[in-house]
Amino acid sequence: MTEPPLVSHSYAAALIIRDRLAAAETAAGETKDTPKMSMLTHGFERPFSWAERPAWISNARQAQLRRVALRVLAVLSMGSVLAGLIALKTAIYVWHLPA
Predict the structure, then answer these.
(1) 47/70 same-domain check
(2) Residue 54 to residue 45: CA distance in whole angstroms
(3) pLDDT at residue number 9
(4) Is 6 in the same domain as 47?
(5) pLDDT higher than threshold 60 for residue 29
(6) CA distances from 73 to 76, 79, 89, 93 (A)
(7) Pair 23, 3 in one domain
(8) Confidence at residue 8, expressed as pLDDT on a 0 to 100 scale
(9) Do 3 and 49 reside in the same domain of the chain?
(10) What pLDDT score was predicted for residue 71?
(11) Does one domain contain both 2 and 34?
């Protein structure tokens, strides 16, 4: 019984295609650092090195994001409390109307 692959098939295929294109480009005389890209897709293509780098957020940035998230949660909570008070006041007003 074989073990499942560690990467998806599409990711593995992308790596194979990248390696074959790199080999073809170096055989054509271009350097690996400056690949020739189409002008239309130049802004959309990114190197594969971004996927190899682990995501890491500094402690200061985590604290800042936590503070922002707590403030947003507090504002949303206050908004829902205010909406509840308005609904309660409206219900009491409608309840006291003569039928």
Answers:
(1) no
(2) 20
(3) 60
(4) yes
(5) no
(6) 5, 10, 24, 30
(7) yes
(8) 54
(9) yes
(10) 97
(11) yes
Give the whole-angstrom CA distance, residue 69 versus residue 75: 10
Residue 67 neighbours by CB under 8 Å, 6+ apart: none
- Distance (Å, rounded) from C-alpha 26 to C-alpha 33? 10
**Tens of pLDDT, residues 6-21:** 555 666 677 777 887 7
- Domain range enclosing 74: 58-99
- The reported pTM is 0.41
The answer to whether residues 74 and 96 belong to one domain is yes
Residue 25: CB partners within 8 Å, gap ≥ 6?
A: 32, 35, 36
Mean pLDDT of the chain: 77
Within 10 Å of residue 14's Cβ, how many Cβ atoms?
A: 14
List all residues 6 or more positions away from 36 whose beta carbon is below 8 Å from its beta carbon. 25, 30
Question: What type of residue sits at position 51?
Answer: A
**Structure-block tokens of residue 33:** 């650092």
Q: Which two tokens stand for residue 59?
A: 């402690």
